[in-house]
Amino acid sequence: MRIQATDERHYLVEVFTKLGFNQDDSQLLADTLVDADLRGISSHGIQRLAWYRRMIKEGTIIPQNKAKIIRELPGSVLVDANQNMGQLATVLATQKIIEKAKKTGVAIAVIRNSNHFGTAGYYTRLALEAGLVGVALTNTRPLVVPTNATQAFLGSNAFAFGFPASPHPFMFDGATCVVSGGGVLTLGGNDEENSNYKGMGNSIVIELLTGILAQGSISADTVSGKHDFSQFVMVLNPAFFGDPEVLKKDATSMLDRIRQLEHIPGKEIWVPGDREYRLLAENKEKGVTIDEKTYQEMKEIGTELGIDVP
Amino acid sequence: MRIQATDERHYLVEVFTKLGFNQDDSQLLADTLVDADLRGISSHGIQRLAWYRRMIKEGTIIPQNKAKIIRELPGSVLVDANQNMGQLATVLATQKIIEKAKKTGVAIAVIRNSNHFGTAGYYTRLALEAGLVGVALTNTRPLVVPTNATQAFLGSNAFAFGFPASPHPFMFDGATCVVSGGGVLTLGGNDEENSNYKGMGNSIVIELLTGILAQGSISADTVSGKHDFSQFVMVLNPAFFGDPEVLKKDATSMLDRIRQLEHIPGKEIWVPGDREYRLLAENKEKGVTIDEKTYQEMKEIGTELGIDVP
């Protein structure tokens, strides 16, 4: 079924408010889920609500807590999410480094003691709106089996990267793993000949920049003991390197050339971002798609909290 | 055949000096090639010498030119390699951002008008020697076919990442593509089901941070018209986020846990860096391996320049 994004947003703000988040935080959390659903990234949209609610009930997430800046340098910030949602701390951190990068050219944030932060792309889009290039990383629960191993250890570790282009930005946003018949694998699959150790390398890089730098749990340990995720965000100012309009034109021209390469008959060449911006336009008009299970969960939560479901 | 690294170095310094590089630059260029050969990365060692010599003869590389810093901010530097070797400009740039990152927490360099810079890992190791985390990227000649395309367009675009660990650093260093029966493909191979568009995404990210940000050629255009490569280096100071010894211990402990996971019988789990540091120890003792074709080229160059071949 489909519901209009404005109705989804209204419902979510009410739910988050009832769950103990203040008005601003509720608006922001709702926006991250609606944004994901609009872009067709349903796995990071309202589908996550029941899980969030469960973590709040268990005390894993504490909605009243405020994210805190622990330490700052001209190009860096270390943020404690204070056991609240990752979205709240990461927006705070990203806004902070956007200001810094305008002066230094580049800035990074590490967020510790955090939780799920929605799509990684949300934060690179904040950077893009400020005219900057953005990178966002998070560790996750352990799902991925390293090369030659027979047990999961690494996170599905998301990587997002946004760069200004027309008619929409280059927007890469996804897990660093692949879902295959045999399970969840590093990019390259389960075959050493496909260089899957390179996929493992990418996964470990994210473990190092998130859980290790943040001194939080690595993905492998988020299911036993303390459940915390860590995030890393970087923004850089393209205006330092050249006229932003020229850089945007050059990027657009390269992406268009890729889209127009000779291709396999019957196939199209899409570049990262094409799918999500097409769905964004479509879903803004037609509404976002909600699967049956998620709609049932929305109704249960609505009943529990006394909120009408759209 | 094998030759001792000291002999290789001596030969290379003499060659580079005769080709017109000054003493310091010759020493540095020799070091980057010997270092690659010692680490078993022969494709980026003395194998490249004949190509470098050819580009100097053609005027693509001008050994007398000096790399210049075009612009600086507290966390960024834009460097013009001035049509000389990439190694010279990238070492200059990396030294510069190492100093900056100590104050800002993070710093980046973009190098334009450059050429081949050896292994990307060389620059992340400069960062590691200064106690910092390093990232290095370069574009290359176009070898890689985007998802669903039937012609090469993207570079094999190298990505290196170094993070302090014991007994050696985590050291990821390689092309972002895979060599397969059908040609050179993005990570994930030529099958959409293996999420090869994610591999394509990684490749394009590097195109954007190198050729586009530097306003140089994108990989696709380095074989027609102007032949220039562009590079991107980032260093970050882990000491801003926590005690460097603790971070190193935590990284080591995670990597050891990966190496010791349950695994496929008869297979070992290696993490990035294990192979190259093992070969480094072995080759320091036994000498570096030189293939027959490369040794012939060394002899030809030796005869041409009046230099004894080891």
How does this model look, in words?
2 copies of one chain form a homodimer. In chain A, helix 1 packs antiparallel against helix 2 (23-38). By secondary structure, chain A is of the alpha+beta class. In chain A, a hairpin with a 6-residue loop joins strand 8 and strand 9 (170-175). Chain A has helices spanning 5-18, 23-38, 49-58, 86-104, 121-129, 196-212, 244-259, 274-286, 292-305; strands at 2-3, 68-73, 76-80, 106-114, 133-138, 142-144, 154-155, 158-163, 170-175, 177-180, 183-186, 229-236, 288-289. The longest helix of chain A is centred in the first third of the chain and has 19 residues, at 86-104. In chain A, 41% of the residues lie in helices and 20% in strands. Chain A has 2 domains: 1-64 and 272-310, Malate/L-lactate/L-sulpholactate dehydrogenase, four-helix barrel (Hypothetical Oxidoreductase Yiak, Chain: A, domain 1, Orthogonal Bundle); 66-259, Malate/L-lactate/L-sulpholactate dehydrogenase, NADPH binding domain (Ribosomal Protein S8, Chain: A, domain 1). In chain A, the strands form 4 sheets. Chain A has a 7-stranded mixed beta sheet, sandwiched between helices. Chain A has a two-stranded antiparallel sheet with strand order 1-13. The radius of gyration of chain A is 20 Å and the shape is globular. The interface between A and B is large, with 80 and 80 residues.
Q: Describe the sheet with the most strands of chain A.
A: 7 strands, mixed
Radius of gyration of chain A from the CA trace? 20 Å
Q: What's the count of strands of chain A?
A: 13
- Give the CATH superfamily of the largest domain in chain A: Malate/L-lactate/L-sulpholactate dehydrogenase, NADPH binding domain
* Alpha-beta content class of chain A: alpha+beta
CATH topology of the largest domain in chain A: Ribosomal Protein S8, Chain: A, domain 1
CATH architecture designation of the largest domain in chain A: 2-Layer Sandwich
What's the domain count of chain A?
A: 2
Please state the overall shape of chain A, judged from the principal axes of the Cα atoms. Answer: globular
List the quaternary state of the chains.
Answer: homodimer
Strand order of the largest sheet of chain A: 2-3-4-12-5-8-9
